[in-house]
Amino acid sequence: MFLNPWSLALSLCSLVVLVLGVVAGRTAVRVLRFWEPGSDSNRQIRLENEIWLSSTLIAYGLGFQIITLILFVLAADEFCQVIVGAMCATGALLANPYGMPALLVKLVGVFFYGFWILIHQLDIRSEQYPLVRPKYLVLLLLLPLLLLDVTLQTLYIAGIKPDIITSCCAVVFSESNGATTNLLSGYSQQGLLLAFLGSMFGLAVLGVGLLRRWHPWLAGLYAAGWLWFFGLSLVVITTVISSYVYAMPYHKCPFCLLKPDYHYFGFALYGVLISATFFGASAAFAGLVRGRAGLAGVVARYQRLAVQLSLVLLVIFSGLSFYHYLKYLISGGEG
């Protein structure tokens, strides 16, 4: 399956990012050993020039790795055309043991890679560059995650065989009590919706409270709330919202939303959710470096902007989430 265009694109992107990660990792070791901001030695000057190049390259590399999440899902949707029993990315990802773990690692990686890029952007906005050591230490800690990301992706692609028989989303996410595995069984739709609406309201209250008066503990609660809401939303989208998008009560799938048949609605829905969660969580994350030299004002401005963006995106996400349900009610049950 490596000769598939999607596989080639994924593998090439990952190879480039790994090379950039190795180069940046070498720079990180040198920074942790030799970085002396007050020195004017030749080694310090060379190191300052080196970190500008390596930081820029790895920032772009991590940005590309974030994009591979989209490429990976699109590739899985393409693979379903050659796998027996697969109708969408669900069946393709379940075709071997590495598909779902690879997707999960990529999804988690989006936030960690994004947080590193945020640290880098905050650092270069201060004349003292106070985050050089911390951001390269974090980069070294990110390299195992990046390696795991690429490894699982490669194992998944290598394990795709046309003669594999897998299950479609109608089986995987069905409410049947048979012998088949249901990934999201045992949830009450009414309970999920109540928790969904309650979480939306709670996040809105916390966000408005932060804009009125900033408290670190409140920012931490806001970030934790967004992480909870992110996981809850993925479940609600699959078990409740998707059925109204498909206008079929028994069709529950988080991936068919991405198909052209449904106007690529899933890209808007997931894109807004991931962006909102990142901004909501990063507001508290940025506060960890607020006390560094020259960063108090920069971080404060970012935190306020991040909360504002997360609230705006929350409103957009709620509109997208309930659009098809309201359309269903207004049209009297017609699609």
Major pleated sheet: none
Strand content: under 5%
Overall, the morphology is: flat
- Overall structural domain count: 2
Content-based structural category: mainly alpha
Poorly predicted parts: none
Question: Distance N terminus to C terminus?
Answer: 38 Å
Folded structure, characterized:
The protein contains ten helices and no strands. The model has no long low-confidence stretch (mean pLDDT 89). The two termini are 38 Å apart. The chain has helices spanning 5-34, 42-79, 89-93, 99-123, 132-158, 169-172, 189-212, 216-246, 265-287, 296-330. The chain is mainly α. 72% of the residues lie in helices and 0% in strands. α7 (189-212) runs antiparallel to α10 and α8 (216-246) packs parallel to α10. The chain folds into two domains: 5-167, no CATH class; 177-330.
